[in-house]
Amino acid sequence: MRISVAKKRDSSLRFRMTKNSLVIVLWDLEPIEMIKLANETTEVQTFEDLLAGSVAAHGHLCPGQIVGVRMAMLGLRLLDFQAPPTYPQLKQLIVFVEMDRCTGDAVAFVTQVRLGRRSLKFADYGIMAATFVNLQTDHSFRIISTEESRDLAALYVPGELDRRQQQTMAYKVMPDSVMFRVQEVKVDLSPFDLPGPTRRKVTCMKCGQVVRDNREVNQNGFVYCRPCASGAYFTEAREITWPEMNWSPYAYPDPTKLYDSDSPGRSVRPGEMAGKRDD
After folding, report:
1. CB contact at 8 A, 32 and 136
2. Where are the alpha helices (DSSP H) in the chain?
3. Which fold does the domain 47-193 belong to in CATH?
4. What residues pair up with 97 in beta bridges, in sequence order?
5. Which residues are 186's β-sheet partners?
6. Where in the chain is the domain with CATH 3.30.1330.130?
7. d(CA 62, CA 58)
8. E strands within the chain?
9. pLDDT digit string (tens) for 240-277?
10. Which of 10, 154, 129 has its CA nearest to residue 72?
């Protein structure tokens, strides 16, 4: 196979494959102004608005959704943030959730924190609690859902016999002081825990995997990833091949349009190979 390289301005890195050759088109970098999509300010939403949005994102209404929405609203209020946070507030917010249940989804929805932004942290404690951290002021509040609120639901909705529905209705009217305990806490965060670019990379001497953000393990002067050092949640790992393993979203594209080359104007659909049709 013959491989050719060409340079082109105002384009992107693209590939064009013919029967016997592969042409790689390189481009000269031009400065691009990054546009912030998030607004500086956001409209404050009511409890009902936040609950409706959280339910839509999560998939169903349940008592845990109401607990999570109210927990997040309280946490933001204690930090003097609005719900949902403004963009500047979001840049100063980190939230730790201690459960992988419906409540955790609701907390993440209301606060708009994300794992990918490093603003959402998961502490696998199995406790219905979350901690809200203001990076600017260093104030942190841990909010715990009380077991008493479950026992007292019948007092707030005495006519409802279904336990789940009873909690769903009661948690909408129950005061915060009954639903939650609040602790002012100190959260020690290292630079490796904060949002932003990767601050450290090392390579595991056993498997060769790159480990980011100081998550490596040092043993006897050698650096390992955590799975190699102390075991992982998976076992019996082996490399495999899979059907259509050379698929890409733009298989053999037109290098000027990134469209499917045999169908001008339509990009290749996910799961579809160029030149191959299901319709």
Report:
1. no
2. 47-58, 63-78, 87-90, 102-111, 148-151, 153-156, 163-173, 176-179, 226-230
3. 60s Ribosomal Protein L30; Chain: A; (3.30.1330)
4. 122, 130
5. none
6. 47-193
7. 10
8. 2-9, 14-17, 21-28, 93-97, 120-122, 129-134, 139-145, 180-185, 201-203, 210-212, 217-219, 222-224
9. 999 988 888 877 666 666 544 444 444 445 444 444 44
10. 129
d(CA 44, CA 50): 10
Dig out the tokens for 158 from the structure: 């005495």
pLDDT of residue 41: 61
Helices (H), 79-147: 87-90, 102-111
Using the structure block, give the residue that is written with the tokens 């949002």: 195
Q: Which stretches of the chain score pLDDT less than 50?
A: 1, 3, 5-18, 21-39, 259-268, 270-279
Q: What digits encode the pLDDT tens for the residues 71-111?
A: 999 999 999 999 999 999 999 999 999 999 999 999 999 99
The 3-state DSSP class for residue 79 equals: coil
Residue 220 CA to chain centroid, in angstroms? 35
Nearest to 119 by CA among 101, 93, 81, 80: 93
Could you tell me which residues come within 8 angstroms of residue 237 by beta carbon, excluding any fewer than 6 positions away?
none
Structure tokens at 231: 């075991």
Give the Å distances, CA to CA, from 278 to 188, 259, 271, 275. 54, 17, 10, 10
Rounded to an integer, what distance in angstroms lies between the CA atom of residue 93 and that of residue 266?
Answer: 41
Residue with structure tokens 């839509």?
56
Specify the pLDDT at position 34. Answer: 37
